[in-house]
Specification:
This protein is an alpha+beta fold. It has a single domain, classed as 60s Ribosomal Protein L30, Chain: A (2-Layer Sandwich), CATH 3.30.1330. It is 34% helix and 27% strand.
Length: 143
């Protein structure tokens, strides 16, 4: 369906007419314990979707081993998902940021262990992360 000026205006007016209370109920911030961040929210719920901010592997038991890093990040996400009323089984999309392309096979092994059935959609990007970590991930899940 082509979007015309009239249909765009009609949709914009319909969105603008949503009562403020309804709009506020759609967005909810989830935090673990007393954790707060000044510039971003760790988890944002919009309706039945949950958007989790990136987590790095800098505090993994062995921050130089990609398997340890991958387990560490996915375990942290599992706890955060549980805190927000979801679970690892409800993950829809994961974005993985790796420092080294040679880490992809080992990361894939651990990833498959966490998502043995119906794995989520995933994008893997080889890049420098803002922190000195081998791996960072963010994800989207259903609730």
């Amino acid at each position: 369906m082509a979007i015309t000026r009239r249909s765009f205006t009609t949709r914009a007016l319909a969105l603008a007419s949503i009562p403020a209370a309804d709009a506020a109920q759609r967005k909810r911030i989830h935090r673990m314990g007393s954790a707060t961040t000044a510039v971003y929210s760790p988890a944002v719920q919009w309706g039945n979707l949950l958007f989790l901010s990136g987590k790095g592997s800098g505090t993994a038991p062995d921050p130089t081993d990609i398997r340890s890093c991958t387990n560490h990040v996915l375990d942290a996400f599992a706890k955060e998902l549980s805190n927000a009323g979801s679970s690892i089984e409800n993950v829809l999309k994961v974005t993985v940021y790796l420092q080294r392309p040679e880490d992809v096979p080992a990361m894939n092994e651990v990833f498959a262990q966490h998502f043995p059935k119906d794995p989520p959609a995933r994008t893997t990007i080889i890049t420098r992360t803002p922190h000195p970590t081998l791996l960072e991930m963010d994800l989207i899940a259903g609730i």
